[in-house]
Specification:
It is a multi-pass membrane protein. It is found in: Cell membrane. By secondary structure, this protein is mostly helical. The chain has 26 helices and no strands. The two termini are 49 Å apart.
């Protein structure tokens, strides 16, 4: 029984880690629940199959369109959505027989639905409801005599959506944040488990483990960003939100640093240090090898202990065992009980201690971890540092308002014009293909513009939708043939497709399109309008709609992918400079600032850059050199962001820690880095750079320190210098692919000393 519980817990952890906060699962269950409830009520009322389809589609729209986080806001938007839906279905029925007037109104409706996105989540939801319900009227061929029954159907659908949202699958900000914290714990446990695998892996398996390690690190970062997005609504006040944000950032950075140091140790020591763990090792092994073997065994033991701390990161774990393990690991921060080994391996032990401290901080922020009676002096010191940090957290600073573009430069206005032009083209072309199903082309043109910001993104999204549609047609043919005239079996399969659509939407747009098209095949079967020709027409209309969207994006107020990526790159460089300059200033004795917020702004900007470069790095991108260049630049920026976050985490300790002291000499080291970032940013903005990229002497040698103890391996100063050195190298590396001129003295730097 205990084994079964552990297995179930492990499986749930993996699922929780794959779906942070269970957001996709809840979205799918909520939508399916709303549709199922609507079908049950409408069946009891005795409505026709056509109105069953209309009710199911409306319940789906009313559920997925609302994305607000606050429950009160969701209720208000849902209440406002019903009159919008009734107006849309009425106009659809009135204009059904008036082709030209109907087409003109449809284009106007599309413009308004897209333009309403400028008014936030509520405007986006109401615009989406209006468009989709008008589409429902076209799909079921709504007529004026049928309006009373359709009004009843839509009202029931909205009521069922409300019951599913607020009663069957309730969602509150606090509950979502709690699940996101659990997902973060699960992903942190996965990352530590993969770090143990890295330690134990044979030479031939290292590459596969590294892939898992990188994936786990990226997923942990994703979960941390999702928590950040839910903090404001899910915590009792701004102070609690800031505290939890800091603790999550500490845990993420500590785990990330541990992985880097383990990889460094593995590379430096190879078999001698980390893989001498065979059960029948020779007794005649040299002393150095025996020490290496002992250190490797101790490191495995401590990583497993760290994994235990993460797995048991819940408030109901009490007793002496976990505090004992935690205290022993915390001692490594103070050089207490540090096993013998090479400098690289000892760095790993220190990183384990830092990770244990971060986990303690996370427990203090989440459930107060009332087990201080077991604290050793090292644990008590860490607890005091956390308390000092908590006291130092002040109110949020008012963010400077950014200048918003106006007129046609506003993204929502530009997108509305583009979609309207593309939809007009799709209506004309769709009418040539079919006077009955032309709206599929319009729908495709609409959706390829959603959540896209450049021509390249629209092209990739159109391609993915077409691929998913083609595969969905094949599935639709098979499902329609298997269902036959069994109405409720068809509805059951529709529900499965709806769940698959919402569960896979954030993962793969092509997969979501597959489920949509398979569902449509079943809906056509229910409406007795199914045929193979209809599904083939669906592919043709999809291709036409995607083509019209791409034409509009290219010819009407285009935002070229290169321009979009340059904007995002400039933002990343600005955020990187903010973090580096603020962290170095604080490490140099300057005033304390909220570095966690700055670091998170950098992470958000880097995620936006990754998204904007996807059209350049997609396999269908024709320019291979450009694709490789984009990947190289993003990889370098990711490395720079890691070292900047680590600098920020160390600088955060300066005001409250007894072990981290400010050093005024670091200001000189940071000056060159920020100067180089400014030059690269100016080049990206097409401005004339004032100078050249500076390089040459290493950061450590620039300090010109005669005190050798400053660079003692494992010391805070050494760690800071190493991060600064890696940042310096990363920024200089960025200059080459971006075409920024380098100073001639760079070539002389080959023989200079480098920290780390």
């Amino acid at each position: 029984m205990a084994v079964a519980r552990r297995t179930a817990k492990s499986v749930w952890d993996r699922f929780s880690a794959s779906d942070p906060g269970l957001l996709r699962l809840m979205a799918g269950l909520r939508t399916v629940g709303a549709i199922l409830l609507a079908l049950a009520v409408l069946a009891l009322v005795g409505t026709s199959v056509t109105h069953l389809v209309a009710g199911a589609m409306t319940a789906m729209v009313a559920t997925f369109a609302i994305q607000e986080k606050e429950v009160r806001g969701q209720a208000i938007t849902l209440a406002l959505g019903l009159p919008v839906a009734l107006a849309a279905i009425s106009l659809g029925a009135l204009l059904n027989s008036r082709v030209i007037a109907g087409d003109i109104f449809f284009v106007m409706l599309i413009f308004g639905a897209v333009y309403s996105r400028r008014f936030g989540d509520r405007g986006t939801a109401l615009g989406l409801i209006g468009f989709q319900v008008y589409f429902v009227s076209l799909f079921v061929s709504a007529s004026v005599p049928a309006l009373p029954e359709l009004f009843l159907t839509l009202t029931i659908a909205f009521a069922c959506s409300a019951v599913a949202r607020f009663a069957l699958v309730p969602e509150t900000p606090e509950r979502t944040l709690a699940r996101l914290r659990e997902a973060f714990r699960a992903r942190l446990a996965q990352l530590v488990a993969h770090q143990i695998e890295l330690l134990d892996a044979d030479a031939g398996d290292v590459d596969a483990v590294l892939v898992d390690l990188r994936r786990s690190t990226a997923r942990l970062h994703e979960a941390a960003l999702m928590i950040q997005g839910r903090l404001e609504e899910g915590t009792r006040d701004a102070s609690a939100a800031a505290l939890l944000q800091r603790r999550v950032a500490d845990a993420e950075i500590a785990a990330e640093r541990l992985g880097v140091l383990l990889l460094n140790a593995r590379s430096a020591e190879r078999v001698e240090t980390l893989t001498l763990h065979l059960p029948n090792a020779s007794a005649a092994m040299p002393a150095r090898a025996r020490i290496a073997q002992d250190a490797g065994s101790a490191l495995r033991r401590d990583l497993r202990a760290l994994l235990l701390l993460v797995v048991r990161l819940v408030p109901d774990d009490r007793g002496t065992a976990l505090p004992y393990v935690r205290n022993r690991l915390l001692g490594y921060r103070e050089e207490q009980g540090l096993p013998q080994g090479s400098p690289a391996v000892q760095d790993c032990f220190r990183a384990v201690g830092e990770a244990a401290r971060a986990i303690l901080g996370l427990r203090l922020a989440v459930d107060a971890a009332q087990d201080e009676e077991y604290d050793t002096p090292e644990a008590a010191r860490s607890r005091e540092e956390f308390e000092a940090e908590e006291i130092s957290i002040s109110g949020e600073a008012a963010a400077a308002a950014e200048e918003e573009p106006t007129g046609l430069r506003r993204p929502t206005t530009r997108a509305a014009v583009q979609v309207s032009v593309g939809s007009a083209l799709a209506i004309v072309g769709g009418e040539f293909l079919s006077t009955q199903r032309w709206y599929w082309a319009v729908l495709t043109c609409w959706v390829v513009f959603l959540n896209t910001a450049s021509t390249g993104e629209i092209l990739v999204k159109g391609y993915r939708r077409l691929v998913g549609t083609v595969l969905g047609v094949v599935a639709g043919v098979a499902l329609a043939g298997a269902v036959g005239n069994h109405t409720w079996i068809a509805f059951a399969l529709v529900l499965l497709c709806v769940f698959g659509m919402f569960f896979t939407a954030p993962l793969s747009y092509a997969l979501m399109s597959f489920f949509v098209t398979a569902m449509l095949g079943l809906l056509y079967t229910l409406l007795n309008t199914y045929s193979l020709d209809v599904l083939v027409l669906r592919v043709e209309e999809t291709a036409l709609g995607a083509a019209c969207g791409i034409i509009a994006a290219v010819l009407v107020l285009p935002v070229r992918t290169s321009h979009r990526t340059d904007e995002e790159l400039g933002t990343v460089l600005a955020r990187l400079r903010d973090v580096v300059s603020a962290a170095v200033a604080q490490l140099s004795g300057g005033p304390a600032v909220d570095l966690v917020d700055l670091a998170r702004d950098l992470d958000t900007a880097l995620d936006d850059l990754r998204s904007s470069t996807k059209p350049l790095t997609h396999p269908i991108a024709p320019l291979r050199a450009r694709r490789q260049n984009a990947r190289y630049v993003v990889a370098l920026l990711e490395t720079c962001a890691y070292h900047a976050r680590s600098l920020a985490a160390t600088a955060e300790l300066v005001p409250s820690s007894k072990s981290v002291a400010a050093d005024a000499r670091l200001a000189l080291a940071g000056r060159r880095i920020t100067h180089n970032i400014d030059l690269i940013a100016a080049h990206v903005r097409d401005e004339e750079p004032d100078g050249e990229i500076e390089s040459g002497a290493s950061i450590a040698s620039m300090l010109d320190s005669g005190r050798h103890e400053v660079l003692r391996t494992g010391s805070v100063a050494f760690r800071v210098l190493r991060h600064l050195q890696r940042l310096d190298e990363g920024i200089v590396g960025l200059a080459r692919p971006l075409g920024v001129p380098l100073a001639a003295r760079e070539e002389k730097a080959a023989g200079t000393r480098s920290v780390g």
